[in-house]
Design brief:
single chain; 203 residues; alpha/beta; elongated
Length: 203
Amino acid sequence: MPSTPALILASTSRYRRELLERFKIPFQTVSPEVDETPEPGERPADLAMRLALAKAQAVARHHPDAVVIGSDQVADVDGEAVGKPGTHERAVAQLTRMSGRQIVFQTAVAVVISRQGFAEARLAPVTVTFRALTPADIEHYLRLEQPYDCAGSAKCETLGISLLEAIDSDDPTALIGLPLIRTAALMRAAGLDPLHAHQVLSP
């Protein structure tokens, strides 16, 4: 009987790792080492899709038999891609810009099996309504949470939820960074059904 291919998450994000652990399937994490610079005129949704696929493909090149999952998230603000702030000042600017507005977080996931030539990606947009935030709200939140590694500076799974009025999504974990409904569908299409894969996977 052939061994089940290894499952690899092409990410070192602890948020994505914790989400994928919900499937209760052993997996490895590998940094994809992909340049995330947007191309000139590239729309946020297209950027998220391109990077999710590029991350999975970058890791799959070194693990051709593995089922490799890549994901990316970009905040879409007036058609402009807004990524991880990296610094306090940029996070202040991002949240100030998003205060009192609806923002679409474009989250994409891709699954690649290099040797089989399987490579598919899907988009899971999430519409987020921010409440009106005062400068004090923003400053206090950032000092407590320090969400500088999150696109748009808001961690909805923790204190960032207090910045929001509403979240509209058909894939509830997409805003955290990995849309599990779409991930499961892509894994099934690749031949690894999360519901029936609870055995030790081959390395």
